[in-house]
Amino acid sequence: MKDEALASASSSQQSALFYPRLSLNGHTRSISSLKFSPDGSTLASSGADRVIKLWDAYTGEILRTLSGHDQGISDIAWSSDGEFLASASDDKTIKIWSMDKGVEVKTLTGHTNFVFAVNYNPHSNLLVSGGFDETVRVWDVARGTCLKVLPAHSDPVTSVSFNHDGTLIVSCAMDGLIRIWDVDSGQCLKTLVDDDNPICSHVEFSPNSKFVLVSTQDSTIRLWNYQTSRCVKTYSSHVNRTYCLFSCFSHSKHKYIVSGSEDHKAYIWDLQTRQVLQTLEGHRDVVLAVATHPTKDIIATSSMEKDLAIRLWFGKDDVVTQKTQ
Amino acid sequence: MNETLINPFNTLTHPTAVQTSFYAIASFARFDPSGRYIGAGKYDGSVSIWDLETRAQIRTLDGHVKAVTNLDWSRNSRFLLSSSKDWNVIIWDLAADWDPPQRYKTIRFDSPVLSASFHPRNSKIIVALMDTGDVYLVDLRKEHRSRVELVEVQEEGEEDSRQSDMTVVRFDPSGRYIFVGTSAGTILVFNTRTKVMIARHKISGAGVIKGLEFSRTGRRLVTNSSDRTLRQFNVPTYQTSKDGGACLEQELEPTHRFNDPINKTAWHSMAFSPNGEWLAGGAADTATHKIYIWDISNDGQFASALDGGREPLTHLHWHPFKSCMASTTRHGNILIWHSPSPERWGAFAGGFEEVDENVEYEEKENEFDIEDEAEIQRRKMKAEEEEVDLDAVPDDPAQFSTRLSVPRDDEDFTWADKEPDDDSPWKMRIIMENDDT
């Protein structure tokens, strides 16, 4: 209750940080994941309609549609040089797409159930994936072989990613556990768990890998110091009870946290004060996927079935620069 | 980054077990400075590069027509130098997009090349040892382009005596000096800039010097010689070239001698651990693969002998910052040694903390007091006020700095930094293997 009071107070005080700028139409079913390319020029989106779409991040123009999966796609990830895109699908495979040629170059098979999350390591020679078969798998990208199968969780794995130097993997699952793994040996090094054991939706390392940001289905996002197993920040007031919503850090000079919400909005919190800075309103369904631009103040949001437009929100400064271009 | 979680009490250790092996048909294998790759030289003249993370061969460099004798990586691993019995030294540019990578430069000599290495601060400066016992310093920079033979200054009164052959050559880690071992059991020290010999150290009883390795700091040196003994020395400080003066004649007394008193085996190669705490010696045993480890921090005490099976050892190299070694067998396999950390099952339980010693549990005065939940919540919120820093990367204890401090006014240092190479940080491109092959 107290938090909500704080939130409304702050949003009325400050003028909006982000303005709706572009609306990208093309997907025919729920959009599951959004990712900006490492250089920020392209936005990739994937959906239950089994395709990946690539958009110009500044103009919203559609660049390419990649199809090949037999089932819906749950997650996508860029390699660090932006040359490849990996996609995780309900057809139990991960596909790697060459951006240069615009074709599928590899299919990784091994998961025995839906693949739900995928990410590259910083050198992009390894991929990590997690899925409904409750395992976390590490793949050799160039050869397309599975290097490690970690019997990681006792429920579907909802999110996996590497830290900034590629020595650690963090995974989280519907069993409510967040585990940290050593990439070299495949050993579990740490387990974080909140007292109430809520289902975990999404996890990622902070840019310096000192913390992990965890979304849980008790409508809370927590920032954990995993060395000390202490929760150092909590972000709330959004609604997250049913779906695996993405949350992410900003990469521009303004430090904030962005997440979707089941009340058809996206929320932006100040990293330090934990107050809601702005809610992005306009979507007509649950906002599932959000992404932040690697250098500029740009946020992409997308939602489920009833609203198939991807929205791009530009920061105050970036609205001006875009108009002059 | 993973070090503090794997090894929370930061206990020092050396590799103890084979983690994996590569069937590389290699005669020797060397880690790159980032510790992510291994370069392997082969008898057929090719060089292969292995990715330690995926444990797969990622590049093949075909350029030599005879056996590769040595490899050296530039500081950021962009350039790789290979020397060969086919009289050539090739410098490869791995930042090239395609496989096989681009040949950046070929340096041709007049006889088979036994070894060659980059200057530690500029990969445009190369020192090479010929099988005729001569050493050349090759400078590829436009301003300084030269090929100079390093010549031993003869002792007075021995003008007519035959020059001893040079058998091993190394830059010291600062790049300021070149150390040369000879067949006469001496170590010669040259100034890299002036190419003048500044010191001669007699190592009594050593015989032919077969190997030279420096610790990371450059303060200690270990030699391998034909008397089957490894000797560790403290490296003396030399006069700067400004002071001029005659060549220093000095006998060096080893601080430690390492040998195998029982089998009296010779040594193929040796390696310091990155922190200089351990010394590993690869035994030249014809029937076994044995690595001896001595604890330098504990007065050079023998620590352990590692057994790598029946394939004899030919070469040994220590990882640039981890407790990990690569040893090559005569059959061409590369064994990767590591120190396995025991599986900690406690890590699977949430909120479980391991402690390094038993802690007597003491019940606190207020432990079972009933507290106001709002109060708890308020305190928690208060604690969360504290600012977090998401960008500052904590110092990784595993990767302590390798950069040595440089006196700016010392010409012997600054000379090497002129016309720097293009060895900036870069990324090895991932080449997707074709499914058909």
UniProtKB/TrEMBL annotation, chain A:
- Give the WDR5-like beta-propeller domain ranges: 24-313
Q: Provide the residue intervals of the WD repeats.
A: 24-65, 66-107, 108-149, 150-191, 203-234, 256-279
The keyword Repeat is assigned to this record: yes
What are its GO cellular component terms?
Set1C/COMPASS complex
Q: Which GO terms describe its molecular function?
A: histone binding
What CDD domains does this protein map onto?
WD40
Q: Which UniProt keywords apply?
A: Repeat, WD repeat
Give the species this sequence originates from: Guyanagaster necrorhizus
Taxonomy, superkingdom? Eukaryota
Q: Return the protein name.
A: WD40 repeat-containing protein
**PROSITE patterns per record:** RICIN_B_LECTIN, WD_REPEATS_1, WD_REPEATS_2, WD_REPEATS_REGION
Record's keyword annotation contains Ribonucleoprotein = no
Automatic annotation (TrEMBL), chain B:
Q: Name one GO cellular component term.
A: Set1C/COMPASS complex
Q: Where is this region: Disordered?
A: 380-425
Acidic residues bias: start-end ranges: 384-394, 409-423
Supply the Pfam families for this chain.
Answer: WD40 (PF00400)
Which key words tag this protein in UniProt?
Nucleus, Repeat, WD repeat
User: Start-end of the WD repeats?
Assistant: 31-60, 61-94
Record has Repeat as a keyword: yes
Look up keyword Nucleus and say if it applies.
yes
PROSITE patterns attached here? WD_REPEATS_1 (PS00678), WD_REPEATS_2 (PS50082), WD_REPEATS_REGION (PS50294)
Q: Where in the cell is it found?
A: Nucleus
State the InterPro entries in the record: RBBP5/Swd1, WD40/YVTN_repeat-like_dom_sf, WD40_repeat_CS, WD40_repeat_dom_sf, WD40_rpt
Coarsely, its chief localization is: nucleus
Which regions form coiled coils? none
What protein name does the entry list? Answer: COMPASS complex protein
Task: State the species of origin.
Answer: Guyanagaster necrorhizus
